[in-house]
């Protein structure tokens, strides 16, 4: 019988790539969808036709228990979150509820449906395996570079704090109940399906608009921040590998290379044959109350234990996104105004 996976956050960037990856591996894939008329669900219906849908919300404990009871998953991937860092200052309580407490509700749903009592269960065979989408934002004001699985956390946003809660809770359920529960500490990963609010996609869409004569400038915030950017399609492979391991362990996933936003902008404009300095406008209002200045992964453990390596380079990723957005805008309406994936 096919293995069954339940994915929260199926309408997001990672949910789509993970679903495609698991379907290709022969899984029966279920996606948790929320809301009465969520426009992003039509993307899943149209583009991920083989994914089955089940209703639920990370804010609603009962709905998660019902979803787990209905699907009977072998693996649960908790990707659902409020994931845009600036929004976490504007809606800090909601971020804590969805991104933080949502992890507790999902773990509890699995625990209750699996009949795991308060005592530690040693035998993990036949258990539902749980993946939590932890984030390099937990490192925040970094204590060392590069960052590995033992680097202490110092989150710099309500989002980072909520992720740290979910991370420690996942570890705690592993230790308290013997659950196969792991966290992937993923560094920034991007793609043509990335939300238009994140800097890589904002830049690739901005470059495409300028290239096609649809805009004359691109307004950006802090150009000096450095991130370790990889390709989302590579990172979902790591999520799956973590749940196939013999032992439940947490892993850092990133490329080990860091670039500034300025370098990202330069690469994207260069890919389109343009000079970024002619178009980019610095906008102080886009700076954050507290910034994460530098992130750079040390993915040695994932390479050694999981055999995982990122495939797509930074330069390939930027060129891929600029080309995809140029094709997209040349073909039809601006996706920042629409909800469909390219
Ligand atoms: P994304 O595109 O923003 O997707 C977020 C998903 O969360 C959407 O499917 C959204 O569904 C869902 N969601 C929001 N509120 C929910 C709720 N109350 N109940 C259930 N689902 C809810 O994020 P992503 O880039 O794919 O990232 C996936 C996960 O990895 C997130 O947890 C993110 O924080 C984490 N992460 C991302 C990165 C990265 O660089 N991409 C790095 C590290 C960690 P709706 O359509 O219903 O809004
Ligand atoms: O910002 C700077 C900004 O919003 C990256 C999420 O997936 O990755 C993501 O979080 C950097 C920051 O991603 C603009 O100040 C400059 O330093 O693309 P971002 P993020 O905040 O790193 C982590 C790992 C996650 O877990 C999150 O869920 O770019 N920046 N100018 C800008 N950023 C944006 N968005 N817009 C600008 O105009």
UniProtKB/TrEMBL annotation:
Keyword annotations of the record: Lyase, NADP
UniProt xrefs under CDD domains: GDP_MD_SDR_e
EC supergroup of this enzyme: lyase
Protein's name according to its UniProt entry: GDP-mannose 4,6-dehydratase
InterPro entries associated with the record: GDP_Man_deHydtase, NAD(P)-bd_dom, NAD(P)-bd_dom_sf
Signal peptide: none
EC number from the UniProt entry: 4.2.1.47
Functional summary from the UniProt entry: Catalyzes the conversion of GDP-D-mannose to GDP-4-dehydro-6-deoxy-D-mannose.
Amino-acid biosynthesis among keywords: no
Domain NAD(P)-binding: 6-321
Reaction equations catalysed: GDP-alpha-D-mannose = GDP-4-dehydro-alpha-D-rhamnose + H2O
Names of required cofactors: NADP(+)
PANTHER family noted in UniProt: GDP-MANNOSE 4,6 DEHYDRATASE (PTHR43715:SF1), GDP-MANNOSE 4,6-DEHYDRATASE (PTHR43715)
Organism: Thermocatellispora tengchongensis
Pfam name, any one: GDP_Man_Dehyd
GO biological process: 'de novo' GDP-L-fucose biosynthetic process
Molecular function in Gene Ontology: GDP-mannose 4,6-dehydratase activity; NADP+ binding
Similarity section: Belongs to the NAD(P)-dependent epimerase/dehydratase family. GDP-mannose 4,6-dehydratase subfamily.
């Amino acid at each position: 019988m096919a293995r069954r996976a339940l994915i929260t956050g199926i309408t997001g960037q990672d949910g789509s790539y993970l679903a495609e990856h698991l379907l290709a591996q022969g899984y029966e894939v279920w996606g948790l969808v929320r809301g009465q008329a969520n426009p992003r669900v039509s993307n899943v219906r149209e583009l991920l036709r083989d994914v089955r849908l089940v209703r639920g919300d990370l804010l609603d404990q009962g709905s998660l228990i019902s979803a787990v009871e209905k699907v009977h998953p072998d693996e649960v991937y908790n990707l659902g979150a409020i994931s845009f860092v600036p929004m976490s200052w504007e809606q800090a309580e909601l971020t804590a509820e969805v991104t933080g407490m949502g992890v507790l509700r999902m773990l509890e749903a699995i625990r209750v449906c699996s009949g795991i009592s308060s005592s530690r269960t040693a035998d993990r065979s036949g258990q539902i395996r749980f993946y939590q989408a932890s984030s390099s934002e937990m490192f925040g004001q970094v204590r060392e570079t590069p960052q590995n699985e033992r680097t202490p956390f110092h989150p710099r946003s309500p989002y980072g704090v909520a992720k740290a809660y979910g991370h420690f809770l996942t570890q705690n359920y592993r230790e308290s109940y013997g659950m196969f529960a792991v966290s992937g500490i993923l560094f920034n990963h991007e793609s043509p399906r990335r939300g238009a609010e994140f800097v890589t996609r904002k830049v690739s869409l901005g470059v495409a608009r300028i290239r096609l004569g649809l805009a004359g400038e691109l307004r950006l915030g802090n150009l000096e921040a450095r991130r370790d950017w990889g390709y989302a399609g590579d990172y979902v492979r790591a999520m799956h590998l973590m749940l196939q391991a013999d032992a439940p362990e947490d892993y850092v996933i990133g490329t080990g290379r860091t670039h500034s936003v300025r370098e990202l902008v330069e690469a994207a404009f260069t890919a389109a044959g343009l000079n970024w300095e002619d178009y980019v406008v610095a906008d102080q209002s886009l700076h954050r109350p507290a910034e994460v200045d530098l992130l750079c992964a040390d993915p040695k453990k994932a390479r050694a234990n999981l055999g995982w390596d990122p495939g797509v380079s930074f330069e390939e990723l930027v060129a891929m996104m600029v080309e995809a957005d140029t094709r997209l805008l040349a073909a039809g309406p601006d996706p920042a105004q629409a909800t469909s994936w390219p």
